[in-house]
TrEMBL record:
This is DUF1365 domain-containing protein. InterPro entries: DUF1365. Pfam families: DUF1365.
Amino acid sequence: MTRRFTSPLRPWLVDLDHLPHRPPFATFEARDHLGDPGRTIRRNLERWLATRNVHLDGGRVLMLTTPRTLGYAFNPLTVYWCHDRAGHPLCTVAEVHNTYGERHCYLLHPDDDGHADTAKEFYVSPFLEVAGDYRMRLPPPTDRLALSVVLHQDGRPVFSAVLTGRRAGRPGPGTLLAQALQPHRVRALIQRHGVALWLRRLPVVPRRPHVAQEGVQ
């Protein structure tokens, strides 16, 4: 069975040391990402990486995500590009969220083309087992963005997601208004297509509650 859908998105690429704050249409809050909501996003990322023997030591971090708008946030994927103090790539972190309010981070060390493989460790779709390997391409963004995530199970691709686009510059009031309901729309689309697959009697994989890696869900 093959099913596809596309959706326009307006993710933001931001520096964790200089987060924009334009309530109610764009705020970046720690409670929407890994770690303790009482700390900053950067501090939580640093603490999590340190447990994996990766130390930022003040290096720059770029985050691609969708901001909280009108009091709501939902990000299927947030990507962090981490650099050392000299500006050299240190690692990439892919933070995956599901529609059950859970999250999981994958620590990646991509090659020069942005490719990295990692085992699937997190329940996302009710129709896919927590098994197989992700083949990701997450090159550092320039004026163009081209990211992809492909899940392979039993030697074949069973799921793929692609995000492409171009840098649009600082959003104006009209753009902020247009994207105000974007998180709601993305979640609704995912759930709508999930219902469509369920109506086709695609087998459902039982979910086990996920244990947050950083100790704070």
